[in-house]
Design goal:
The protein is α/β, with parallel strands linked by helices. Among the domains are: 262 residues, ANL, N-terminal domain (Rossmann fold, 3-Layer(aba) Sandwich); 125 residues, 2-Layer Sandwich (GMP Synthetase, Chain A, domain 3), CATH 3.30.300. The chain has 22 helices and 30 strands. Bound molecules: 5'-O-[(S)-ethoxy(hydroxy)phosphoryl]adenosine.
Amino acid sequence: MAKKKAAGRSRKASKKAAPKRAQQVTTTAEIESVLREQRVFEASEEFKKRAHLSSFTKLKRLRREAEKDPVAFWERQAEALDWFRKWDRAFEWKYPFVRWFIGGQLNASYQCLDRHITTWRRNKAAIVWEGEPGDQRILTYDALYNEVNKFANVLKSLGIKRRDVVAIYMGMVPEAVIAMLACARIGATHNVVFGGFSAEALRERINDSKAKLVITQDAAWRRGNEVRLKDAVDEALKKAPTVKNVIVYRRTGTEINMKMGRDHWWHELMEGASPVCKPERLSSEHPLFILYTSGSTGKPKGVLHTTGGYMTQVTYTTKMVFDLHDDDLYWCTADIGWVTGHSYIVYGPLANGATVLMYEGAPNYPAPDRFWDIVERHRVTIFYTAPTAIRAFMRWGESYPRKHDLSSLRLLGTVGEPINPEAWMWYYTVIGGKRCPIVDTWWQTETGAIMISPLPGATPLKPGSATLPLPGILADVVRSDGTSCKANEGGYLVVKHPWPSMFRTLFGDPKRYKEVYWSKFPPTKDRNGYYFTGDGARKDEDGYFWIMGRIDDVVNVSGHRLGTAEVESALVSHPSVAEAAVVARPDEIKGNALVAFVVLKAGVKETEKLRQELREHVGKEIGPIAKPDEIRFTDALPKTRSGKIMRRLLREIVTSGVIRGDITTLEDKAVIERLRQQLGEES
Ligand code: WTA
């Protein structure tokens, strides 16, 4: 097995202060952990005074109790929702399929809207929106309620019913939220596709989910340019037979093509819509949304979430992890097209009656201080972003945040990748003024809601650690035989008991669901099956979790999880390419950079022009985020005897130039030699 060299992340201070610790960091054959970080930060007394939970002792007690009976713990949290009918049974587990709050009836849009408009929150701002050009809108809960009711009636008028799938391909405008909540209101299942994806990727997601309707906009503003979303929809729909209607929201006013009978303007449909649409009474397991995420084979996975369990956990975690209070102005910078946007812009915050800031555009438009300008002008109190963004802010320099008064901030959060301690300290010092706790939240599209995270008033923080699983979440780090790792031993991150916001299956593919997530640690006579997250991790001597990233062939580029296989299939779809293998190498800014090894078809010349063309081609097939940073032409790829590309070896070549791992399964050893030589020539 590969033994990777220590990546040199260990801090001088910690080496001196605790020489013993270094020895404790053990290596398994599987994953090696090299990060050591000793600093601990506590929330201030002032922060604790207001916090929903302010004592670590209490948190530990709560975790112990919930561990003994997680179902009872989650039942108590479910009581915070407004159910039309209470559940008969809280939990049913038929490996690997789970159901929560069986027999219960509710509606997600009711949680987010109806239950607030009968209280003082009716006139509270739900969404404070800022467009990239600087235009602003504020929607109160009452206004949002009206828009959602009307739009729900619009959907009905186009024949959309319970369980129909509606694709949403939009930028960051309030109408995206309105569209999602309107689907939830009538029991349609939304499939939001990130607006940065290409027409090709959109078409695949529409067809796989059998969407009947697409909601889009003419174009979106991004870094001063128009991203022409409607054009991409037109292209996608050339081969998407299930789609009958398209609703187009006018955002930029650009000229677009409207196809008679199929395409309708949002504003025209809304004009005649009735303002009252009763929320459907939906069963707890009613499908709320499908969200596609990259898998390690070419085809994206349709992660399916249902209503009762999902709403329970997003509501609880938003309140506790972000220590949300009614006077907060909460800003999550994620895009609505990712799960973070679903759970922590829309469902969690609105279910809690929060005021959510939503920003349309790029963080560096018109200048690299745009985010800090927004924080200052709107007096944002809670700010949740990704490590890749933090690393970009660091590169742009302190002068940009320093120009602004950021004293309104009281809590910071991160999600999406491991945050390195240096970035954590920068975030803590420069953005948080050493005043704001940082919640490093570990979770996934599949988990639906936050799983491992500090509770900011209670948990002492260690830079780079997501700290402890939340109460009711039974996470662990195990070896391949399923036994728990020792302190500081690297292993597989698993969850041992199903949780409410767990995805229920992969849409249309329960077999793959079982294979990908539940076959690595199947049930045995002494234990239940474990959910395998795909991440490597270690627990330190305090039980704190340190996430080490993906261990399969999915890579995280700028916070986006990409399947290298998808990039490979895009490359291979180019007429000049015979074969391709894509691996990641660590990159200071993006987290990972993609390196593509490309074998050209016989007779095709290796030119700079072709390199560019291939990058553009991937951009068109998948989206700009997937463009390889580097393309290396080669005459063969290292493969196993059964024909599987050994990406592990390529990864070692691009990260260290040296291969230490086992190459006994390699078919043609000369290939590696040639790749290595080629590397020498290039560098
Ligand atoms: C990674 C995003 C370290 C991890 C919500 C996970 C993290 C994948 C963290 C899920 C974190 C997410 N620390 N790694 N705090 N949060 N990850 O599905 O590898 O886009 O498996 O969901 O991101 O990415 P996804």
